[in-house]
Amino acid sequence: MEYRRLGRSGLKVSEIAYGNWLTHGSQVEAAAARACVAAALDEGITTFDTADVYALTRAEQVLGEALRGVRRESVEICTKVFWPTGPGANDRGLSRKHIIESAHASLRRLGTDYIDLYQAHRYDHDTPLVETLRAFDDLVRQGKVLYIGVSEWRPEQIAEALQIADRLGLDRIVSNQPQYNMIWRVIEPEVVPLCLREGIGQMVWSPLAQGALTGKYLPAAPPPRGSRATDGQGSGFITNFLADDVLRRVQSLGPLAEEAGLTSAQLAVAWTLQNPAVAAAVVGASRPEQIRENARAAGVRLDPSLLQRIDDVLGDQVVADPAYIPASSTNSTAAARARLAGRDQDGDTVAGGSRQDA
After folding, report:
1. Known active-site residue 54
2. For residue 232, what pLDDT is reported?
3. Which of 33, 170, 201, 262 could cysteine-pair with 6, CB 3.0–4.6 Å?
């Protein structure tokens, strides 16, 4: 395993991070979750990513239990706040009330005194940004949070947050967590250049395009039993990556992976790590061997000619239009559903959008 600084902060994270979206407390039993976390630690993975909303708060508890007994200073625990965690009007968003209450609840579930990286899971148009940033800053000053980040924020939202923080002397954002993989590259035109200038690192999720880039899904064939595509909860996130044209091109990536001495999954994860803005690729797993396979992508350097051949194979299936980054809390769900269904908000057709499937 290799480790990278998270942006220009002093925090180092493992190139491969372990995430438990759609797994812990939901698809994976507690014993299997503990086995996956143990395998991650054995591989040198020190960065663990979760969120209060995953499995309706259960995922944080499962991760905390799996890490019990591990030297706290040897791992980086990352979690998030924004999505509803209860029925009340204030059980959601990025108000001071919800941030502070959610942080305390996450600390209890994770069984820790502090969170290494606390992330705004989406942007909240309903709360003044200065209120959100002051609440995060207070948690940092109290020692309950060490660093703050965001997830799926647009470049203008990140830029405004940095301007406010600099003007008021508040703690700065050090990370962004976007979806990013060979097919879904919407952060490249605008988010990545801004973050490189401002010292913000990317901890990317779905480096395997929900599993479509593993090569196990075949065009014009039913998905394998037990895969993300057959799961009632996870299938909606992978559907549009399973278009036959996408899958045919993914099959053509298999020989390129073999040339590099990698599996298709390892090639996909390693591809994300070639971007200098990326600090870590967040992968999930339902079995320890999946973690071990993905961990082999750490430290891999891909030849520029191979990167070009990957682009040539994927061709027009690559989505790089930054318009598909959710604009706000009010339309992000609708936009994401439309995107994953293969249509933009105007109804025009587009491409693109754990377990090993993450």
Report:
1. yes
2. 53
3. 201
